[in-house]
Design a protein that fits this description.
GO molecular function: L-amino acid transmembrane transporter activity
Subcellular location: Membrane
InterPro entries: AA_transpt_TM
Protein name: Amino acid transporter transmembrane domain-containing protein
Main location: membrane
Distance between the termini: 23 Å
Number of domains: 1
Strand content: under 5%
Length: 177
């Protein structure tokens, strides 16, 4: 919100205008359209898929809840998910209102590498991916092994499935911007 309100990217006189690619400069020629989609929308979906990843720890959270009951757990989960949803909507909206049609699927790609707030956000995203990806990947790998009926297989199958899944995921991550 700071960069949206201070105009750092809004015009050639903005603090970070010159340090961003011309393709990342704000574009509002067609007005504001919150529902425009492109192939890069899938990058956004990938980011959103980790937004609500807490279900991997759901049972643990339930048993740690004081006076645990399904009703109390549902309230805690509902409030937590609503707060996460509100933060995501706020960040996406402010990012879109800052860059308009030039917004990329990962909005941080629009911000200057010289912007310390954007750099801090990139570091935070890096930590989120670094610690969230193994949770999702472990589930993908285990369910793939189960779906292929390889549950009693040797470690070599475990490693082969791990590599077979990691390689395309990593390549997609390297080539999708």
């Amino acid at each position: 919100q700071v960069r949206y309100t201070d105009g750092s990217y809004a015009s050639p006189s903005g603090q970070y205008w010159k340090s961003t690619e011309p393709s990342d400069h704000p574009e509002f020629e067609g007005g504001i359209d919150y529902w425009r989609t492109s192939i890069m929308t899938f990058v956004l979906f990938g980011s959103l898929s980790t937004a609500f990843i807490a279900h991997y720890n759901g049972p643990k959270f339930y048993f740690q809840l004081r006076d645990a009951s399904p009703r109390r757990f549902n309230i805690v989960v509902g409030v937590g998910f609503f707060i996460a949803w509100a933060i995501y909507v706020w960040v996406m909206s402010v990012g879109y209102l800052t860059f308009g049609e030039a917004s990329e699927g990962l909005i941080l790609n629009n911000y200057s590498e010289e912007d310390p707030l954007a750099t801090a956000a990139r570091v935070a995203i890096g930590f989120a991916v670094m610690f969230g990806f193994p949770l999702a990947f472990t589930s993908l790998r285990d369910n793939t092994i189960s779906a292929l009926g390889l549950t009693d297989a040797k470690k070599s199958v475990f490693y082969a499935v791990t590599i077979a899944l990691l390689v395309p995921i990593t390549l997609a991550g390297c080539f999708l911007r």
